[in-house]
């Protein structure tokens, strides 16, 4: 007895006792013989036909093959949009409500497997676009297309990875869209049309912006506020719907962060796209350095080689070979190739230099006091001065006894120290970017570099002592004066390192950092707060000369604030990492300094148009026979009905969505039941033949 529940998998099969190639001709010949006998009206023709048919059926050996089948559940994937634009209005609440409603209505279907995936939220990467189809493909990666009942997208419609070839969606089943927004939404946004990546310090760059109202213009113009590096804002009017050019000055090297904000319109979905930011890296065209050597000595070449090795540096170098009061009969024209242009350098073009270096200089009447006063004013206004002390700094001819003494951080004691010593980095020096992590420095032990033998004894009046020499006396002092910076090296023997004496030392790295710190390289700020952005991950770094346990304050693009604790190491670094949940401008402040982090692209697609729309997904619905429905409409009625549908029927209606019934199964067993007994058929065939012969013989 074949069970009734197995009949749906029944099929007829033949296992012939003879090969078909032999059985078919034999049956054909037999039928032909019977046909000829019938034409001759021979008796027993019907009995012979019966015998041939019975014999053929027995030799064909028919059987009933019954498959034992186990049904497989169809799969429906629900993709929930968690992108930042879903936080607008009631969209998030509607999405949660729609997901709960779908889950409840799909629960009674025992032949359905529900998979829910979230996309567009915190995934550790960039958050500039909403990718729902990537999430859909990942969710059904292990499911054959023949098992897919369909998919439901719960979104505001702003999806940025719709397949360009809709044939890629074949076999998934109907793809339905449930929109979370409202009809006829309006918004205003500001966009960066054109912005340079780099700009020359002291020059201006052109920035083109555009303010758009969607769907139509709400006003002829709008007020836009511009901030540069968090400074004082300035406002101007910008026509709506047209490009507008802004002239911006690049004030410093490194990142120049420009913030733009447009006033709100009458219809606004979000103010997140009313703000835009762009980062322009400030670069110096050429760095102009003036090096004045007070006398020829072995260390001159060290300074010259360092500065000439940098292709971005224009070096002007003068060495005073003989003081004016010395008379030895040598003609002036043999003492220098060109006349020393004192007035041109120290009065007319002084402000054009980025750095002035006095190397082993002493007062000899070459530079009048007025010009030294000009240099002091130049530093106070933002210039940079480096003084490398020689024997003369401890003498009555010291530069400290000139107007420069008011800006130099260390005063001479009148003594010099002539004994071997190894320069060492101080505790505060290990926190300062100029001397931190110098190659060869060892905490708690002697550094791995050569000795020096001469040092001027000085007493620091201001600034930070980052290196010390003999008897732990100050060797390198760094200070800020007004808007400028001053560095003082109380020895002229750094050239010993460049010559490789006792293994040499990190003179190239030290002098490079020192020069760039003086010229205000942002990477070498000793008290600094900065941010670094990698995708949607913001790393906050604070460097300080003094330990600072205070947390910083993080402000999101939506003006939400929260404290952010920093973890500090022994070298003055404190850092923390936070994941941004929305594109835009993030502010980090410690009370004294503010740093900006721009997350996302210049014009993030996620904020380009935040209005809810079904236009992007309408072609997908049409290609897969799905539908586009507004959740707000269904909330006022009984809601959308869910139906299981046949593949050849409609999959969508005004008040319902369909999920395809595939009827897929796996075979767990097979029953092979012969339909007729072979022996009985052979006996019947013999009886029929014998009866036919008998009839014919009468």
Automatic annotation (TrEMBL):
It comes from the Bacteria. SUPFAM superfamilies: Class I glutamine amidotransferase-like. Residues 540-572 are annotated as: Disordered. The keyword Transmembrane helix applies. Keywords: Membrane, Transmembrane, Transmembrane helix. The chain crosses the membrane at residues 20-39, 46-65, 675-693. CDD domains: A4_beta-galactosidase_middle_domain. InterPro entries: Class_I_gatase-like. Residues 540-549 have a biased composition (Basic and acidic residues). This is Glutamine amidotransferase domain-containing protein.
């Amino acid at each position: 007895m074949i069970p009734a529940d197995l009949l749906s998998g029944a099929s007829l099969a033949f296992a012939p006792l003879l090969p078909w190639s032999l059985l078919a001709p034999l049956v054909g010949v037999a039928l032909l013989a019977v046909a000829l006998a019938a034409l001759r009206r021979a008796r027993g023709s019907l009995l012979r036909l019966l015998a041939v048919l019975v014999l053929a059926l027995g030799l064909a050996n028919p059987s009933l093959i019954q498959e034992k089948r186990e049904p497989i559940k169809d799969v429906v994937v629900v993709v929930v949009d968690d992108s930042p634009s879903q936080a607008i209005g009631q969209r998030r609440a509607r999405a949660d409500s729609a997901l709960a409603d779908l889950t409840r209505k799909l629960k009674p279907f025992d032949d359905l497997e529900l998979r829910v995936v979230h996309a567009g939220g915190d995934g550790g990467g960039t958050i500039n676009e909403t990718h729902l189809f990537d999430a859909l493909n990942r969710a059904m990666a292990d499911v054959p297309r023949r098992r897919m009942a369909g998919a439901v997208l719960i979104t505001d419609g702003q999806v940025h990875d719709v397949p360009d070839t809709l044939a890629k969606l074949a076999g998934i089943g109907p793809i339905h869209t449930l929109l979370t927004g409202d009809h006829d939404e309006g918004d205003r946004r500001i966009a960066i049309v054109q912005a340079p990546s780099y700009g020359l310090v002291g020059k201006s760059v052109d920035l083109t912006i555009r303010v758009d109202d969607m769907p139509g213009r709400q006003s002829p113009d709008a007020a836009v506020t511009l901030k540069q590096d968090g400074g004082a804002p300035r406002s101007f009017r910008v026509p709506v719907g047209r490009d507008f050019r802004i002239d911006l000055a690049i004030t410093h090297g490194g990142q120049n962060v420009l913030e733009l904000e447009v006033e709100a319109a009458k219809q606004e979905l979000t103010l997140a796209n009313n703000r835009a930011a762009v980062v322009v890296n400030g670069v110096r065209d050429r760095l102009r350095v003036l090096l004045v050597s007070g006398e020829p000595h072995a260390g001159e070449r060290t300074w010259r080689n360092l500065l000439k090795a940098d292709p971005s540096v224009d070096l002007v170098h003068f060495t005073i070979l003989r003081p004016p009061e010395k008379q030895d009969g040598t003609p002036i024209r043999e003492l220098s190739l060109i006349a020393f242009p004192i007035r041109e350098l120290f009065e007319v073009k002084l402000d054009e230099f980025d750095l002035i270096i006095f190397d082993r200089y002493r007062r000899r009447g070459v530079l009048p006091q007025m010009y030294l006063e000009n240099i002091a004013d130049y530093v106070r206004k933002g210039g940079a001065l480096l003084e490398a002390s020689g024997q003369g700094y401890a003498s009555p001819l010291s530069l400290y006894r000139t107007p420069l003494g008011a800006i130099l951080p260390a005063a001479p004691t009148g003594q010099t120290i002539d004994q071997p010593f190894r320069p060492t980095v101080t505790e505060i020096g290990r926190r300062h970017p100029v001397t931190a992590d110098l190659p060869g420095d060892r905490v708690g032990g002697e550094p791995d570099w050569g000795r020096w033998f001469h040092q001027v004894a000085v007493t620091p009046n201001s600034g930070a002592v980052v290196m010390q020499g003999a008897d732990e006396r100050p060797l390198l002092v760094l200070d800020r004066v007004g808007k400028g910076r001053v560095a003082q090296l109380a020895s002229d023997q750094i050239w010993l390192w460049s010559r490789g004496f006792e293994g040499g030392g990190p003179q190239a790295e030290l002098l490079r950092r020192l020069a760039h710190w003086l010229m205000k390289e942002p990477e070498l700020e000793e008290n600094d707060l900065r941010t670094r952005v990698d995708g949607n991950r913001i790393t906050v770094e604070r460097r300080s000369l003094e330990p600072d346990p205070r947390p910083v304050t993080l402000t999101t693009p939506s003006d939400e604030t929260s404290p952010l604790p920093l973890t500090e190491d022994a070298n003055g670094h404190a850092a923390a990492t936070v994941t941004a949940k929305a594109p835009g401008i993030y502010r980090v402040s410690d009370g004294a300094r503010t740093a900006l982090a721009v997350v996302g692209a210049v014009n993030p697609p996620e904020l380009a148009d935040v209005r809810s729309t079904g236009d992007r997904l309408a072609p997908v619905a049409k290609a897969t026979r799905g539908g586009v429905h507004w959740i707000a409409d269904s909330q006022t009625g009984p809601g959308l009905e869910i139906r299981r549908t046949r593949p050849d029927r409609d999959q969508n209606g005004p008040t319902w969505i369909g999920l395809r019934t595939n009827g897929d199964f796996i075979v767990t067993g097979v029953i092979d039941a012969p339909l007729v007994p072979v022996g009985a058929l052979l006996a019947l065939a013999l009886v029929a033949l014998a009866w036919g012969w008998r009839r014919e013989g009468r």
